[in-house]
Amino acid sequence: MKDPADFNLPEANSAAIRRTTVGGVETFEAHIAGETIQWDRGLSYGQHLQTGRLLNAQGPVSDKPDEMLFIIMHQTMELWIKLMLHELRVAMAHLRGDELDKAGRTLDRTATIMQHMIHSWEVLATLSPHDFMTFRGYLGKASGFQSQQYRELEFLLGLKRPDLILVHNGDEAAQAALNKTLGEPSLYDEVIGVLSRHGFTIPDSSLSRDWSKPYAPSVEVEEAWLTIYNDPNAHWTLYDLGEKVTALEYYFQEWRFKHMKTVARVIGHRHGTGGSAGVHYLVKALDLQFFPELWSMRTRMEAHPVAGK
Fold it and tell me: What predicted TM-score, i.e. pTM, was given to this entire model?
């Protein structure tokens, strides 16, 4: 039995702790602030979340106070991206099994994560140009270009750009993970497979191809989406899927836009720490698409006739 001090409770309060053994695990109970609180020798909150490692994972390279904001904001971004990668893979498994309702729920969650990430730029935007310049020189050539997870997310959504793996040439594990994702079907590839299994004519070039290559828009795929969107009541499940997938790109592009504006606010049109064109590069990224036919077919849709005219 450990001393009551091990529980950070004053000696006078130690008698208030009720000790029992449940399933072979020593368990404790106490009345604290009007609540009955229980804990045991098993899994704790800190152990489950590994808060010790998490809260000690910030290693500033300068003595400048604003570097902590920069580190934590990017670390939280990486955590959210990790969750998105997880959720997208779950959704893709549901799509392969034609479990569209389950896939839709997971896609909705992913879109909500993206919305949260969009708003998180507001916190980083409180970093003034002067604040950033106090520690920017300490960062060397470290930059977001080296984010393995972000690149993996782009690959998973369908933006296959293998040349960007080059920046990970010193990290064999990162290269292996990126090459694996590069060579697998993307989310949109799985969605197109769903269209084919639901009776739409999809060319073999869209269904069976070198997944590591960029996706080439297809007239047949655009026609399929146009048919679905022109009569959503007849194709409601696929229409709903199309809208959920479109939402992902919509929010992803909004995230990119907020990224670009935050960078412009903090460093203007300077080059990025890794040598990129900074804001100019981020502006170009706004033209990149994941699901081209879902956007192009909207231009071809026609207004319904007005009754009586």
Answer: 0.88
